[in-house]
From TrEMBL:
Pfam families: OSTMP1
Bias type Acidic residues, positions: 310-322
UniProt name for this protein: Uncharacterized protein
Organism superkingdom: Eukaryota
Organism, as annotated: Phlebotomus papatasi (Sandfly)
UniProt cross-references to InterPro entries, sorted A to Z: Osteopetrosis-assoc_TM_1
Length: 322
């Protein structure tokens, strides 16, 4: 029993010491390598291998963020590493002062290395990805990009939160904010906008006008809601103004009735034929319009008004751009 335990302890101890000596070896190797000159000439093959790895990483992250387009904001670090590896490859020399460029570039008509680089870089340029950043080399997003995604997050949160109730009414103001912010960028930059933004806006517009159908049938109800609330809001004002004029009229009447104490004669003598006119048959006006024609015409005007207001409302929420 005891000897067995001793054996185990011995084996364990031996194992430990072997392991620690191995670690020491590795450590001394590491420290030795860090003492080497800072930039040892690296074979061009190593630079090519590095370029291959970085191209692969960049390709992977582009494809992972291709639909919906988010690769501009997601792949910047891989893009920078890819650019750096290409720079290293083209600017380095071998031990024998042979430039790597002369080994891999312009040695045949295909120029595969250069073609690979150009094509991958094209994907970055094609998406106007530099436009997302105020300084791509430090991967700092521009204020425009930050603001856009702030508004974008607001409306998306709003829509997800109000999935049960009516998102069109609730999120209308968020949608308008995002939309007008994007239109402002577009006015300034034309079509050369960071594609992450363009795609996000496009998707939000489609979500809003096609999937949620917030344009056609909701806009009029929103409009009538606005009109009704405006009228209701104005009612007290109208009431006070009317009351004020009525009071003034009343005061003047009181003043008149105070001075000429006997009441004035009724304007229409009691047995005049005018008194017997039925209520509806008033005199036609100079143009021959009677009261009965009036409501119809005002109704027509009202209809026209709502029609034009409808159009401007559509413009506002930008539902024509799908
Ligand atoms: C490479 O060039 C450097 C200076 O440019 C020189 O000092 C060195 O001797 C050269 N090495 C070879 C192998 O030619
Ligand atoms: C971007 O940042 C780098 C590193 O800080 C700096 O050298 C460069 O000048 C900056 N570029 C611009 C356009 O600000
Ligand atoms: C971006 O916003 C920050 C803080 O809001 C501000 O300090 C900076 O000047 C802005 N940059 C530009 C280019 O407008
Ligand atoms: C809306 O959603 C966001 C993010 O999902 C969450 O932080 C927020 O609390 C939600 N608001 C409400 C009222 O549910
Ligand atoms: C917006 O989406 C539509 C439909 O998916 C597409 O045809 C159009 O090219 C997109 N526009 C942009 C700028 O991505």
């Amino acid at each position: 029993m005891k000897s067995e335990q001793f054996l185990y302890a011995l084996v364990f101890f031996l194992g430990l010491s072997v392991e620690s000596s191995f670690c020491q070896n590795l450590g001394s190797q590491l420290s030795r390598s860090s003492k080497d000159p800072p930039h040892p000439p690296v074979p061009c093959q190593n630079h090519l291998d590095q370029f291959e790895r970085k191209s692969k990483d960049f390709t992977t992250i582009i494809l992972k963020n291709a639909v919906p387009v988010t690769y501009c904001t997601k792949s910047v670090n891989d893009y920078l590493a890819f650019e750096q590896s290409y720079k290293d490859l083209t600017e380095s020399q071998d031990k024998n002062n042979v430039s790597c460029r002369s080994l891999y570039f312009n040695v045949d008509r295909l120029g595969v290395v250069e073609t690979m680089y150009t094509n991958l870089q094209r994907v970055w340029k094609m998406g106007f990805c530099d436009d997302c950043y105020s300084n791509t080399s430090t991967s700092t997003l521009s204020n425009t990009t930050k603001d856009f995604f702030y508004y974008w997050k607001e409306i998306n949160d709003c829509i997800t939160n109000s999935s049960q109730s009516d998102p069109c009414l609730k999120c209308m103001s968020h949608y308008q904010k995002l939309n007008s912010f994007f239109d402002g960028i577009k006015k300034e930059k034309g079509d050369q906008i960071c594609f992450d933004l363009q795609d996000a806006m496009n998707r939000t517009r489609i979500l809003w006008s096609v999937k949620l159908n917030c344009c056609r049938d909701r806009a009029p109800s929103m409009l009538s809601f606005t009109i009704i609330s405006a009228i209701v809001g104005l009612l007290p004002g109208i009431f006070y103004i009317a009351f004020y004029f009525w009071r003034r009229h009343q005061d003047r009447f009181d003043f008149l009735s105070d001075t000429n104490s006997p009441l004035p004669e009724p304007l229409i003598p009691e047995n005049s034929p005018l008194q017997n006119l039925p209520e509806n048959e008033y005199e036609p006006g100079p143009s021959g319009a009677t009261a009965s024609t009036l409501p119809r015409s005002t109704g027509a005007i009202k209809k026209e008004k709502t029609a034009t207001a409808d159009e401007s409302d559509d413009d506002l929420i930008d539902c024509n751009k799908k």
